[in-house]
Amino acid sequence: MNREAVVAEALGLLDEVGLDAVSTRRLAKRLNVEQPSLYWYFRTKKDLLAAMAEAAMTPHATAPLPAPDDDWRDWFADNTRSFRRTLLMRRDGARLHAGSTPTGDLDRIRHKMDFLVASGVPERDAQMAMLTASRFTVGSALEEQAETDASDGTGLPADVPVIDHESAFEAGLALILNGLAHPIGM
Fold first, then answer.
1. Per-residue pLDDT at 160
2. pTM of the model as a whole
3. Nearest-CA neighbor of 59 among 4, 105, 27, 99?
4. Which residue of 29, 47, 75, 158 could cross-link 66, Cys pair, CB 3.0 to 4.6 Å?
């Protein structure tokens, strides 16, 4: 058993039971170890959750970085879509990620910011756009993952539309991009 194996099993447990039911007791049982042995790898459950959040983001964190000749709008949209896909890969992935600090991803974030600025986006606008897109994406994924079985329209009044999460996400992303490309004077 090593740290990576513990995190992998914890993510498997997350997918099975959801974030609210993940516990060190359950994880220890799943690993066939005594609960205190997990403290060798993670001093607290918060430390375990942080490691799980980082590992769950691996598909997005290893996506190609923008190249200097990339169109910033296309890259920004693709980057945001990659983030969403990654959040949706895990049960409660958005909740797991919410509030986490991307400490292992700081160099990649700086590279992305530098790319936007080099593409002509003012630094403050680039920062706010990345933050806005991130929070919009997490919120969208939270809503999508929180839906109940009634989301197919059964039990809803006839005048309440069923949300197509993909279309709603794309529309919101387009608004963010349009706002960044054509800022309104203050």
1. 79
2. 0.89
3. 105
4. 75
Three-state SS letters, the chain: CCHHHHHHHHHHHHHHHCHHHCCHHHHHHHHCCCHHHHHHCCCCHHHHHHHHHHHHCHHHHCCCCCCCCCCHHHHHHHHHHHHHHHHHHCCCHHHHHCCCCCHHHHHHHHHHHHHHHHCCCCHHHHHHHHHHHHHHHHHHHHHHHHCCHHHHCCCCCCCCCCCCHHHHHHHHHHHHHHHHHCCCCC
Provide CB contacts within 8 A for 123, sequence distance 6+: 113, 117
CA Rg, the chain, in Å? 19
